[in-house]
Structure formats: C-alpha cells, structure tokens
Amino acid sequence: MSVCIIGWGHTKFGKLEDQGLEALLVAAANEAMEDAGVAADEIDAIYVATFNAGMSEQDFISSLALQVNEAFRFTPSTRVENACGSGSAAVFQAANLIESGRARRVLAIGVEKMTHLSSADVGRCLSRASYMPEEGDEGLTFPGIFGVIAGKYFQQYGDHSDALAKIAAKNHKNGSVNPLAHMQKDFGYDFCRAESDKNPLVAGPLKRTDCSMISDGAAAIILTDEDTAQGYDKAIAFRARAQANDYLPM
C-alpha cells in the first residue's frame, strides 16, 4: 500500500524573534491542514519531530499539538527525535502507522528554535548528536566533524573543492528564489569556491558557504493511504522510502 502526501505547511526559516517553538509548530500544522482541506477531527495521529537537546526549556513538545486545535484532544501525539533526521523519521513513523492500517490520516510536524542562543551554545547542543566519548566530549562540533570527514575523503579520492563549491552555489541559488529560506542570496560559484575574509575556512576544507545556518522554523505534512488520497487533487505518492543506521566515516 502506497502512502501519499495530501497537504503541507512551511513557516519562513530565519531568526524569528517574535515566534517561539509553540507558535511555529501551530502555524505549520494549521497551514498543512488548510492546504489539504482536512479538519482536525479527521487526523488519527500526530508525530512531532524536534532535536532540541537543551535549545528549548520546553523539552516535552508532542502535547503542544493541542494548541493547534481543540479537536486534537485525545488524538495520540508522539515526539520523534533522531538528530538531523528527526523530521524524516517522523514522516517514516507516520507512513508506518498508515501502512499498518491503524490510521488513515496522520499529521507529521518538524520544528526547531535555535537563534535565541549564542552560536557557542547551539554548537554545544548540536554536539550531543555526536558520539560524546570520542567526539563531543573532545570538543568537536559538527562543522569540525564534517570537516574531518571531508578531509579524509579528499585524502582518499583527491581534492574535490570544485564539487563542494558547486553544491554550495546550487544551494544558495535555490535559497535566493525561495521566499521561505533563511539565506536568500545567490553567492555564485566563484565566491563559494574561493577562501576569503567573507568566506573563510570553518573546519578542514569546509568554508562558511558550505555550512548551514542556525535557524528557527517549522514544517508539516499530512499523509494518508492510497485509497483515501483519491479524493484529494494534489496527492503525491511515495515511490520508495528507507531508513538505516551507521557509523560516522571517521
């Protein structure tokens, strides 16, 4: 049985000082339900994804779904935490529930609030997604970890700085035409390729343009089974999905 997306919602990403974790979650969920044309009492289950790790004092957030709509009272809501893959893992669990036949429509929400902290504090929080005894406790941040990985890749396969610059340039170009993106500037390949005062090395061969920004935002989608999706004009079916666990290549 295929699972389909029938609606989505997405806040702007950025330094959103006037919106807290709860407000972002509520905004994305309401937009997804409006986009799908689904009422709250038609949602059978909710998955809320966040990493957090100390970035917010509100650590238990699955119950915040109640703030979306009073009809969500008694609807099961579960938090999913899987580091940077938290949102994808929430979607995966929603799809599993639908495929099992235990739910018809499921709301999956991903939300993060980071910019109220200093860069150093966010770095420490994110480092908790590493293997602490060998990485986080040794002072490695994730730019540092990915810098080590990129450096080892270069040692084994040659210098691929051109490829990194093309990836960064592509990402920033996409952001420049996305009104919801945090960074909306097309830097171009030459800027991304060259080390400079405005684009310094951060860790290993990684430059500032290779690294993601500290940001606030939320997104949500509504999933349903293939038969129910026939009643929705914008339904998009999953062609495949997979999940795996592995060691960092360090």
Instruction: Give the N-to-C terminal Cα separation.
Output: 38 Å
What integer is the average pLDDT? Answer: 93
Strand arrangement across the biggest beta sheet: 3-2-4-7-1-8
- Rg over CA atoms: 20 Å
Summarize the structure.
The protein has seven helices and eight strands. With 250 residues, the protein is of the alpha/beta class. It has two domains: 138 residues, Thiolase/Chalcone synthase (Peroxisomal Thiolase, Chain A, domain 1, 3-Layer(aba) Sandwich), CATH 3.40.47.10; 81 residues, no CATH class.
Provide the descriptors you would attach to this structure in a database record.
32% helix, two-stranded antiparallel sheet, alpha/beta, 250 residues, 6-stranded mixed beta sheet, Peroxisomal Thiolase, Chain A, domain 1
Describe this structure in words.
This protein has two domains: 138 residues, Peroxisomal Thiolase, Chain A, domain 1, CATH 3.40.47; 81 residues, no CATH class. It is built from seven helices and eight strands. It has a six-stranded mixed sheet with strand order 3-2-4-7-1-8. Strands 5-6 form a two-stranded antiparallel ribbon. The longest helix is centred in the N-terminal third of the chain and has 16 residues. It is globular, with a radius of gyration of 20 Å.
